[in-house]
Amino acid sequence: MSLAETPSGARDDGELGDAAKLTRKDFESDQDVRWCPGCGDYAILAQVQKLMPELAVARENTVFVSGIGCSSRFPYYMNTYGFHGIHGRAPALATGLKLARPELSVWIVTGDGDGLSIGGNHLIHLLRRNLDVNVLLFNNEIYGLTKGQYSPTSRQGLVTKSSPLGVVDPPFDVASLALGAGATFIARTVDVESRHMLEVLRRAALHKGTSFVEIVQNCPVFNDGVHEELTDRAIKNDHQLLLEHGKPLLFGEGLRKGIRLRADLSPEVVSLDEVDIGQIALHDETSPVMTQLLARLGRQGLPMPLGVLRCVAGVPRYEQAVRAQVVEARAAKGAGDFDALFRSGETWTVG
Amino acid sequence: MSQPSSSPPSKRLEVVDTVVIRFAGDSGDGMQVTGSKFSTESALAGNDIATLPDYPAEIRAPAGTLAGVSGFQLHFSSKKVLTPGDAPGVLVAMNPAALRANVGDLVAGGILILDGDAFSKSNLAKAGYADHPAKTGELARWRVFEIPMTRLTTKALSDMDLPQRSMVRCRNFFALGLCSWLYQRSTEETQRWIAARFKKTPALVEANTRVLKAGWNFGDTTELFGTRYEVRPASIAPGLYTSITGNQATAWGLMAGAAKAGLQLVYGSYPITPASEILHELCAHKQFGVVTFQAEDEIAAIGAAIGASFGGAIGVTASSGPGLALKTEAIGLAVMTELPLVVVNVQRGGPSTGLPTKTEQADLLQAVYGRNGECPVAVIAASTPTDCFDAAMEAVQTAVKYMTPVILLTDGYLANGAQPWKIPNFADLAGEPASFRTQAEGFQPYLRDPDTLARPWAKPGTPGLEHRIGGIEKDYDSGNISYAPANHERMVRVRAQKVARIADSLAATEVTGSELGEAVVVGWGSTFGAIEEAVERLNAEGLAIGHVHLRWLSPLPKDLGKVLRRFRTVIVAELNLGQLVRLLRDQLTIDATAINKVEGLPFTAAQLTETIRAVTAQRRREERR
After folding, report:
1. What is the predicted ipTM?
2. Between chains, do B295 and A97 touch, taking CB under 8 Å as contact?
């Protein structure tokens, strides 16, 4: 246990108590995991179960909430409290839960269909409110549970059961959407990059506010290899831009390539063989301009940023602000008194 | 101004039992204030009262048009008052549009008080009058008092340094002063209210008070009115009273129910007419620990309520018909996860957007049956504005006891209507504390209480009770996901039985009027007052007619069939095309004669009296054949 900060759900007194003794095994439920063989979700489940004991949050103080879809089966496999909701509504369920019980550690597990299509409205409002929950959005760019229709992140031209001549609508740019909605924490990782994922999940757990993590995930049945550029060892170095706060944006074999900004702030790839490292843009997690720039990168034939695109601390959290008004009202008016309330309007006596 | 009247002896004093008065004007004319202040004066005079505002769907329709007319009706009496009154006997109309929109309701021979100054050519044209109706003989059926209220108002304020516009805006208090004089109401309370309301602008306190007095003095000194009226105090149960609207009572009942259960109230809501006042009321009382959440949409509102209930609070959401339609899937989730939840439907005219500001009872079948799958919920309906308090408390208590969603049906008529409420002592109100499972040994999330069939409520934070729930069918014993055919049917049946068991604790069905005999009128919800009054009138005529008013629509009381079969004819009166009728046919195999109205308006007692009389007469003729 080496976390500098404590996540939601941890004991107030800073002690770990019994939670210190928890192991990964303690977070595995007795249910058989039933995703398809080779599904990226297994790897995500493994990393989340690995992270949990490290956070030292008691199992009973942890709740996984989900909507509908392959990803949304996740809560059944976690030996914590769990709520498998209805399609797209996990953020709504989690909002009520967190408003009632701000002390809990709440995780939302969703997918590109659940979170960005039917539940898109809830997701953007969750992000703007900055409720202190962690959102894991598994993005496989396809509807899996309904057997292979295109999703709002499917790329144009993709042939699926519902787009035999290719997808016509342009996909959401997930990170830009989150940024536009006011997210205070935006990160991206890949299902097969277990160490990277664990680090990103750790950062998400410790962020106070809505942590939005897009996990690029492979559906081996309906959209196999869609993220190959990021996962194929032979080429991934040229396509992954691993982010570190304050460090230059470098990628490629031996980190010899970098992102330089032109005068109009548009990005270009340069080689360190030709330019000085001082010309390479520095990552700044707190800069919305940098986040916007990074969010658009993967779509322009430039490498896909992985890691924390944005992390802004100290933004008021929704559940805290809501509860603070209750405290304020009590300070100003005293604890509620029903007999006084009933007599607060004009009254008259009969008899 | 409760000063002894200096009326010249020429003014006659007439004692009357009951008055129904309607104030109507442009929506900017302050008619709601006038009406509610006159109501308070009447309650303070000891009358029983009921009120009903009637305002346009548009916030500010063009001034002077029919669409912009706002009204407020008050029924006050020395006898028991059951409704805001059928047809007004007095109409105060502040402009031609208000006259045109309302005069058709005024009883023949009724008093019509007009602001003559507002009957300009352009205002007449906006209301569709070619000429002043007082001059064309159109108003001959009524006693017309045309008073230059605007001029008298500005004259009373002529020495004050106020813009003309502000002066004219005071004229609603002229009407109030005049009516207060006419019915011998003290205006002391109104003067106190004016002083408090306009505290920040002393000139307006002075102006409104002066105009109020000018109205009173006008009645007192001019020869226009030959008669004043006296409505003596009603015999009302002794106690301390306040006036409460249905929506306010619903909000307070939800709070009180949650407090009695020892639960935090988490209210998720999306603005919608006519339910929004519940949100406004609840968010004003955060010191009670009430958490309100104005959600991004109706689905999020109920989703948050369900999430809060999972967390061990009592989740509540409210809406009106279109919003309920959006919440349907989530209600199913609460049925499946067996969490306590209260869903308030303040019904309005439908379908679709329908008549947002008008009342209707057409969401009954939606409440009882309107979900995918076999999806039983408990449904309770409030019958009067003050009953909204008791029904809301009962809804919370039932939801918690049986771990089930409860739909509370009210409607626009109850929501906006007001009634005197005998203030209870909070300590005397009934209510059980909620209990949470804490023991880990033998815990399974769907194991049931043998009496109520409720599953245990195990909230996050309780060690050893970690469990997962969701919308997928669960195994009867373990609560794990189960697709087993026999298990599904067993779960479907047990969820239905659980809701049916609520009937075990319901009181015996009460019949008012005749206990048995010719006919029984069955109603539910806001039609209570009109049916009760109609049945009282028919009983007075010697007809053996009873009234059963249903509070629980799901489940129905166990003795209902037996009670209804004591009568030769069952009549169901409701503001839809026959929904309770279908429910009774379906569940009790009782056929009934339907009395229906779908005009966006409540029944009047007169209408019902006549229709019930006709129905029973018809039945007698059929029996003789």
Report:
1. 0.97
2. no
